[in-house]
Amino acid sequence: MSATLSARIIEFSTTGGMLRAVLVRALVVLLCVGLLAPIVVVVVLSFSGDGYMRFPPESFSFRWYERFLGDHRWRNAILNSVLVAGMTCVFATFLGFLAAYAMVRGGFRAKGAVTAFLLAPLIVPHVVTAIGIYYLSSKWGLVGVRPWIAVSHAVVALPVVLVILQSALRAVDPNLERAAMIFGCDRWGVFRRVVLPLTLPAVVSAALFSFLTSFDELMISLFLAGVRAETLPVRIWNSLLLEVEPTIAAVSTLLIGVTVIALLADWGVRQYRARALPDTTKGP
User: Fold this and answer.
1) Residue 60: phi, psi to the nearest 5?
2) Could you say which DSSP state residue 120 is in?
3) In this structure, is residue 170 part of a structural domain?
4) Ordered per-residue pLDDT tens for the chain, 284 residues
5) What is the per-residue DSSP string for 135-191?
6) For residue 201, what is the domain's CATH number?
7) How far is residue 62's CA from residue 60's CA, in Å, rounded to a whole number?
């Protein structure tokens, strides 16, 4: 009797475990479908041949891409976004790397307070940051100046860079830097020959994510762009205020494509770096 009861308990436990696994997988599939469904709808609408947004579309064409790329206002917005995001990428990655190195290797007392200050833009609403920067910009006549917009975007991109590079720098053994200095390297040589090569995948990731942060930034650009430096998100915002047409779907598809390309580039760099480095876990 006891053996039969134990067998039934084991069978029930096994069945319950399989049921939980099936439910978890079904939940994951539903979540993925919920996240991807709006993207699929936007991409399909961008190829619509109708004169207004309608899903599913009755016909398909490239008319909205032609209208998007044929309008100089959209082209100027893309150019402004790329220029601003490129400058933001350089500013945020350079300053973020120096700050991360100081936070990881430094031993000063106020390190925790400085780190909290640098990460504050992650929790402060962007509208608050945008209003503060706007009052400063209007006083100095910097509204519509692309380099200043890039510096302002770097304020919100810097915390992302800092988090990524701090994790990478903690994985670098300080003894490698000490050994390089013992063999004659100066500080710049240690940085160039030891630290930077070991953290290169993280640097590329930080640069790509800072580029995406700037490329998709709306609130700060809305306050600072003006008429001279209208970025793509601001152009989308202004277009939505006037008329909702499938051109917006084509522009949104472009933004999705840029994000996907950046993520694939990040993955490719990491894979290449992993293959290039020797596997130290195996013996000779």
Assistant:
1) -125, 145
2) G
3) yes
4) 555 645 555 555 566 567 777 788 888 888 888 888 888 888 887 777 766 667 777 777 777 788 877 778 888 888 999 999 999 999 999 999 988 888 888 777 777 788 888 888 888 888 888 888 888 888 888 888 889 999 999 999 999 999 889 888 888 888 887 888 887 777 787 888 888 888 888 888 899 889 988 988 888 888 888 777 888 888 888 887 776 677 788 888 888 888 888 888 878 877 776 676 554 334 44
5) HHHHHHT-TT-HHHHHHHHHHHHHHHHHHHHHHHHHTS-HHHHHHHHHTT--HHHHI
6) 1.10.3720.10
7) 7
53 CB burial (10 A radius; 0-12, 13-18, 19+)? middle
CA dist., res. 261 & res. 251, Å (int): 15
Nearest to 119 by CA among 61, 151, 165: 165
- Chain centroid to Cα 126, Å, comes to 16
Range of the domain at 174: 71-276
230: number of Cβ within 10 Å: 21
Q: Does any domain span residue 43?
A: no
Q: Is 229 in contact with 149 (CB distance < 8 Å)?
A: yes
Cα separation, 148 vs 137, whole angstroms: 8
> Would you say residue 2 lies in a domain?
no
Q: Element (H or E) spanning 281, and its range? A: none
DSSP 3-state of 106: coil
What gap in Å lies between CA 128 and CA 164, rounded to an integer?
A: 25
Sign of CA dihedral 269, 158, 120, 256: negative
Amino acid present at 212: L
Task: Count up the domains in the chain and report the number.
Answer: 1
Asked if residue 192 belongs to a domain, the reply is: yes
> How far is Cα 116 from Cα 119, in angstroms, rounded to an integer?
5
pTM of structure:
0.79
Q: By CB neighbour count within 10 A (0-12 exposed, 13-18 middle, 19+ buried), where does 28 fall?
A: exposed
